[in-house]
Structures are given as structure tokens and as C-alpha cells.
Design a protein that fits this description.
Blueprint lengths: L4 H22 L9 H22 L3 H12 L3 H4 L4 H25 L1 H11 L14 H18 L3 H18 L7 H7 L6 H5 L6 H4 L9 H5 L29 H6 L7
Length: 264
Amino acid sequence: MLSHEPQIRFIVFLTMLAFMVIAEFLSPRRRQEIPRLLRWSNNLALVALDTALVRLLFPLAAVGVASWAEAQGWGLFNLIGMPRGLAGILAFLLLDLAIYAQHVVFHYVPVLWRLHRMHHADLEIDVTTGLRFHPLEIILSMLIKMAIVLLLGAPAIAVLIFEIVLNATSLFNHSNLRLPKPVDATLRLIVVTPDMHRVHHSVEKEETNSNFGFNLPWWDRLFGTYIAQPSAGHLGMTIGLQRFRTKRDLWLDRMLVQPFRGKE
């Protein structure tokens, strides 16, 4: 399974992307005013660039680092001889907590926010927004993730499962999908739902700095960063940032230079 990691991740990604695109068309949450061709072509071009850079700069990536640490006996779990099953569960939870913490830091440290704000500058939110991250943020995030995997000695299979689940839930919770209220209320007990994460993409600063979870919803409740609903409602809220509100800002070239275009 690990030897086919890139193929497995790619197949799951395409399947989830196609499923969420269809679901959005069948049951949209918000009316979208900006042509999909403009947003989707640039957002998908960006993820292609991000993927190529990661494969070029980190041929082993997080799963490869985990396999190497296991072989060398490095990392906390390997040093203490923790049972593999328990190590896998703890690794999944701790990696998700680390992603939450990293997300908070990227919002509050100015130089990191300048990288991350490109994700928030999308003027609509749908499944492709879950792919829209600046290459420099992707590279930095991968370095952080690899360091955590190495320190923990996380089992490679757990890291692979985490990566697959994280990618799938990012596509899900950024989607423009309308879920029945009882379904949303139940789901957000165990996973970040589209309505929960959409609050995070509000133009309102307090709401932007809330609901940081990408996968598990528990950290926001535990650390007091949870907001249940946007103040203007999901249909009335404004998506994005106060700056970068033109359609030209949605083009790939503008997205790539955005971190260098003044302060937010």
C-alpha cells in the first residue's frame, strides 16, 4: 500500500473532488456570482503547481519520512515501543491537533498571515477553495508536518491515512454544499462541516479568526475558537477579505504575488 502512496492519494483526491462537485451542483448552499471557469481554472492551476513543487522538493514527503523513522527506530513512539495500533491513533490525533495549531499561528503571525491570506482572498467558497494555498505556505506546512512525524515516530500507515482524510475533509468542508440542519448538527460533532468552516471565511475579522479545524471539530471547542454560525447568516455573509476584491485578484499570477502586495 505504501509503495503506491502517490497513486492512492491521487485516486482518492479525484474521486472526492468529482463527488463534491456533483453534490454542490445538486444541492448548493449559496448562489455563486463569479463564473466558475474563472475561479476553478486558476484554483486548479494553483494546486497543480503546489503538487509539482512538493513532489520536486520533497520526494519522500511525510509518509516517506515516517517509513524512514520506523526503519531507524527514531521518534517518541518508536523509542518507547508503543504498540503500533495505539501509536497510529495517537499519531492521527496529534497530527490533527498540530494542523489546528499551525492554522492559528498562520493567522496571528503577520509574516505567516501574508502567505495564508491568499486562501482567504477567494471571493466565493466551494470545493476548489480547499485547494487554494500559496506554494510557500504549502512548502512550509510540509516541513512542519515532516518534523512532527519525525519527532513522534508516527507509523507510516497512520500518516498516509491522515493525509488522505485531511485532503478529503478539506474538499468537503470548503464545499458549497447545503446539508439539512439535523445532518449538519450531527456531523459537526465528529467532523468539520461546510457550514462550520464557512464561518472561517467570513470577511468579519472575529469570524475569520474562528473555526480553525480542517478535519476534527473538537479543538475549536476545546480552545474556545468555535463560532456556531456567522452573524449575517450563511446566505447574507460576505466571503473573503476587505482587500483583494476584484476578479483580477483571482488570477494565478495575482495569487502568487499577493503575499508581497502590502499589509492586511
